Amino acid sequence: MLWPKSLNKKIKTNVRLSGLMSFKVGGAAKFFLETGNIEELQEALGFARREGIAVFILGAGSNILAGDSGLDGLVIKLSGEFFKRIYKEGDCLGVGGAVKINQIILYAKNNGLSGLEFLTGIPGTLGGALAGNAGAWGKSIGERVKEAAVLDYRGRPKLLNANKLKFSYRKSNLNKYVIISCKLKLRKDDKSAIGLRMREYLLQRKKTQSNNLPSAGCIFKNPRGSAAGKLIDACGLKGRSKGGAAISKVHANFILNKGGASSKDILSLMDLMRKKVSKKFKVNLEPEIKIWR
Q: What does pTM read for this prediction?
């Protein structure tokens, strides 16, 4: 592939994805670009579009299952100061798409701004959180978004204000864009009170979820009026394993990489979970993680 001269030295080939994913599984990306430059990003997106090359945007890799055979496309990882900016503007935070969630929460707390504590302990970056409307305890990040700066997959910039944004359970219309930055509307509060809530959320998360082995967090979305983990648990699947992967004994909606797991192992367990829940409860589980293949 003859890339534009400005990108030719930046594009890597056959980059192993397993080390970039929280699941620690996945084959190689045919093409890989790590960039902190928006013009470079725009050129890569435009060229890939013209050449029919599939594009995958990688944040922290915390909710992605990459296929064992790799990806026939371009994986773009946003990095550098431009995409990792964070600043205070009145009661709002301006945040770059590559900033990690824990950094945003801590910055908000240190500046006496509340409204994001419920995200404490959730991995990933702002971009991934917005695309999937990340949340917990009945709250979600979409409730805090004032506006978002994005690129479409042709590389064209857009500024979407609140009335152009659509958020629902683990879903948003931002998933069809590359998220550059956003403004989050928060509220003033005492730093110590914010810190106390953060500790409470983190303690609750540690009690109910498995974080000691590689995973991608919750595998399935919660069906309306129920919890995926409870349904899977009721099917007696906690601890069930396939190859190097196992369903958590603590939280049945987690699959863990015990060591040497493959994407195929994980997909096999996901298929088992869906079939058992469908048969017992007549409920179809929908994946919360992204499956790249």
A: 0.95
